[in-house]
Amino acid sequence: MSQITENDIELDSVPALTGLDRCDSCGAQAYVRVTMSTGELLFCAHHGAQFKEKLSATALDWHDESYRLLEEQNA
């Protein structure tokens, strides 16, 4: 499983999450994209953190842009 965080350089061409991407659990803006063998899941930062331990064992990719929440607060 690969992970992309604020300290990593994105090497593949995975598009950034936008305000149109919504959390599959609550409908808030998605900051986490989890690629599973059966498809993708989108989560807000809260639900991404909540499900990370359970899903990370079987996830193919964990794309986390939750660091953007801190950038938006400091802007």
Could you outline the blueprint of secondary structure elements for this entry?
Layout: E1 2-4, E2 32-36, E3 39-43, H1 45-55, E4 61-64, H2 68-74
Parallel strand pairs: 1-4
Antiparallel strand pairs: 2-3, 2-4
**How many structural domains in the coordinates?**
1
Average predicted local confidence, pLDDT: 86
Q: Residue ranges: pLDDT <50 for 5 or more in a row? A: none
Order of helix and strand elements from N to C terminus? EEEHEH
Structural class: alpha+beta
How would you describe the overall organization of this protein?
- The chain is α+β, with helices and mostly antiparallel strands.
- The chain has one domain (2-7, 17-65).
- It contains two helices and four strands.
- The chain has helices at 45-55, 68-74, and strands spanning 2-4, 32-36, 39-43, 61-64.
- The chain is globular.
- The model has no long low-confidence stretch (mean pLDDT 86).
Explain briefly what this protein structure is:
This protein is of the alpha+beta class. It is 24% helix and 23% strand.
Give a quick set of tags describing it:
alpha+beta; 75 residues; 2 helices
